[in-house]
């Protein structure tokens, strides 16, 4: 979604300015055209040459420099930007933006743009907590700017606290959300479930499965990138929550049922990508089961709740069916039995498909029985193909956001 989009990246005089090089590089690698704007102070921390090399584009520092476009048309970068991100944003620049000044290329561009503006503060804890900085950030928030971070952790001063520039992945997530704010899921509430549930045997062991959560997280991210308000109900995974997504962490199928049912109260769509256990131990042992003196152990398993059939209302409901054999037959059966709008059939034994991979090969089956077999695709692309169908179903139902 960053392909050919114009991103204006304002870099200011913070010790975190070197991290902006990573952001500029990753945005460029994703296909964006990154116009870097630097305050004079920023050039003490990182060289314009670095940014120029990474983006392959001219870097703007002095609005009066007769060799740049800005001298001809000073608001050109502001006009062409699809999003403006100031990262890192120093306390001084935040104050300047709150005052509405336009006396350097960063503040000039922010003041002149109609694109969404993101501000990622980075400074020492005391500077961040200072009432002046807080008041300035509040002014920016009220003007509709998105304040991203700061994160908590070790600061350049050696102290711990709030003030670190957010990680590059978080900043890119925020840019994508800003770009997608008018997407075809804008104003829609989408609930996604992800990960493999863990059913306790005793306080230290569980019955689990190989789900990595990657498909569900990709769905949450892709729905966010199309403007949706996303709740991600997730069983334990090793993945970071995508920026801008509401996360609800659960462990067992029962907990997932409760969280999904609650999140679906006012949702437009539910996509169940989680690998929910079909069976759980009847009752978890209160103490750790000991091996000593036992020849074997038999577990009595009972069925888990059927989450999709417990979700009521006229929301679009999408199920995932992972199988190692007779995939399409069982996917069709699931569609009929639970009266779903879509089933995504996933052969977990195919190469590059299923658990823990970054790609997936699926067939989407709709309520009329029509089947669309997709090629092997990155999970984010699979997510978008599923969301194309969800968005179309929501449009057909004519429920205006
Ligand atoms: C070594 C050093 C590190 C600094 N780090 C920060 C910082 O992380 N955040 C910040 O707001 N200011 C920091 N400053 C102060 C700013 O560089 C200074 O306020 C400057 O005027 C900011 O100008 P600008 O907003 O136009 O870039 C630092 C200064 C020095 C000398």
Distance between the termini: 22 Å
Kindly provide the radius of gyration, computed on alpha-carbon positions and rounded to a whole number of angstroms: 25 Å
What's the CATH superfamily of the largest domain, by name? Answer: CoaB-like
Q: Catalogue the ligands.
A: flavin mononucleotide
Average the pLDDT over all residues and give the rounded result: 92
Percent of residues in helices: 25-40%
Largest sheet: 8 strands, mixed
Structural class: alpha/beta
Integer tally of domains: 2
Q: What is the strand arrangement across the widest sheet?
A: 13-12-9-14-17-18-20-21
Number of helices: 14
Taken from the alpha-carbon principal axes, the silhouette is elongated
CATH hierarchy: architecture of the largest domain: 3-Layer(aba) Sandwich
The first-level CATH class of the largest domain is given as Alpha Beta
Report the β-strand fraction as a percent range: 15-25%
* Strand element count: 22
Poorly predicted runs are none
CATH topology of the largest domain: Rossmann fold
In short:
The protein has helices at 17-29, 48-55, 69-72, 76-80, 91-99, 105-112, 125-129, 131-142, 168-179, 214-225, 253-263, 307-310, 327-337, 379-397, and strands spanning 6-11, 33-38, 59-60, 83-89, 117-121, 146-147, 151-154, 160-164, 189-194, 199-200, 206-207, 229-234, 246-249, 269-272, 279-281, 301-303, 316-323, 342-347, 359-360, 362-366, 371-373, 377-378.
